[in-house]
Amino acid sequence: MASLVDIIPRHPHETSALQDAIYRSLQDARSLYGPHRKSFDGLTQHKRARDEITALPAKRHRLSSGSASDPSQPKSGIPKVKRWDEGLEMYRRGALRLTRTPGRATSTNVVSLSDVVKPEALEAFASHSFIVEDDFLAAHLPLQGPHSLRGVPIYDSRPIESDPMFHFAAQQGLLPDINLDKRTKLTKAQHAQAVPVVRELHRQFGPPGLRPLYPWASGCAHSKFFLLFYPGFLLLVITSCNTMQIDMDLSDNHWYIHAFPEIPPGKKRKAKTTFEHDLLAHMLDLDWPEEVISRVRDKYDFRSAEGRVHLVASVPGTKRATDGESSYGMLRLNELARQIIPKSVKPDIAMEFCAGSVSSLPPEWIDQTDKLLRGRDLSRAVSVTKPGVPEPPVALSNLPEWSIVFPTKATVAACSPDVITAASNIGCCLNNKEWPKTPDEVRSMFFDYASKDPGRLFHMKFYQWKDSRNKNPSAPPLMVYLGSHNLSKAALGEVSRLKSGAGDVRIRCSNFELGVVIRGEDIVDFLEPGSSWDDIVPYVRPSRPYNNRTGDSPWNSPAWVSQE
């Protein structure tokens, strides 16, 4: 077995050889990680990982020596952090935005990553994403140029399997119990073995300031959010985008952005808000270290979000509704529906979903999910079950009339090549084999996707609770959800009750997820002046229902098809 001592170079020629090895591993990791990684090569215009690794020692030496001829440089050679007060004013009340796709270049209520990440003003950066395109993210951070000398802490949280350095470590024999050929998910023991090795490789060869974080999950560590620490405020971004160009530049996605002012030192703070509590709870659930948590706890004023924005999280494992913890997944959405939606409207709620991943949709799960999302009491929404005794089947005629907006195969096939590449991010578990066998009552729920930026696809997860009695097409929904939760058990959870009464309700999720719920009547407050609530809906409504007679069926990415 190799060790870190064996591969850490002691001579410039050895350094070059190791850099080449890392580069080859980075390229191999793209193919090992499936169609998501393969799609990066043709999309990014940034420098290759090899260029970054090869140039890093020279850059560090050159930058550390400063530039006597540059009058903007302080004598020490390290520039001062700049202020970005416009960001605080722009996002002080919170904002909902769509990705600035090519056809929305001059539209309102759109955003790109460079609009919210200002490297010259960053004091610290923390993010979690399921997939990270490293060169795309690095191009937005203070990792090059004079501001790289400030050593800005960069907390990069992701599944360790998506880090190319993990693949390099495994290929170099540093992780003897991990076989990449099997492509199975790491066990907790394997994860614990890999984390210190991969972190040490980043310390030796990664950019200064990088602190990689690797939460373990039984399913996916699927949350997508950024914490941007600027002088005087914290900027929070929760999105449906993976940190990659096809999501953040080329696909329809949502962004919730909110600036929270710093509490001046010595000033007595108000009571902690629910919003701050829930944000810190999710950071702790991801097993983020205290050095990150302490940057947020009791440091910022979150009152502008309280009562207006409600966080919704999921965590892997089984949780009881009476554990005194924040509720998760569907239980959290049930709680919010009970708070926000009037009782008189609940029987008439029409649910509309647009999610990048759609599960196999068993009728029993549809029935239970619908009851919970409508805000029914848990004792009525969740039937009592006995271990080993299956629940009675749900009559298909009693299923709700959901609307699931998802592109057909024909819609995807008609897109341009770059958009079709982006479609590798989405899929439906009602795949080629299952769709013909799917009950008509479920197939009738599907509607085709047509972007307002024609020809675009999406990676969003967007739910609407609508009052079916209100026939005004311009009326806002009762509430909306946007974030990372796909329409699946793994994300939203599966709820059970082992005894009568609500006290034994439990939810089992597989993924880490994070999103927000906002009341429909409040949506316009998060948009630019003169906007309509419908401006955050990136697709044309009403959507066209699938035509089963002409063979309409859901698009399936190669990743889904390969699992048939």
TrEMBL record:
Binding site for substrate: K224, K461
Record site feature (Interaction with DNA), residues: S488
UniProt-annotated stretches for the region Disordered: 56-83
Biased composition (Polar residues): 64-75
Top-rank taxon: Eukaryota
Alphabetical list of Pfam families matching this protein: Tyr-DNA_phospho
Residues forming the catalytic site: H222, H459
GO biological process, one term: DNA repair
Any one GO molecular-function label of the UniProt entry: phosphoric diester hydrolase activity
SUPFAM superfamilies, per the entry: Phospholipase D/nuclease
Any Gene Ontology CC annotation: nucleus
Protein name: Tyrosyl-DNA phosphodiesterase family protein
Protein species of origin: Rhodotorula toruloides (strain NP11)
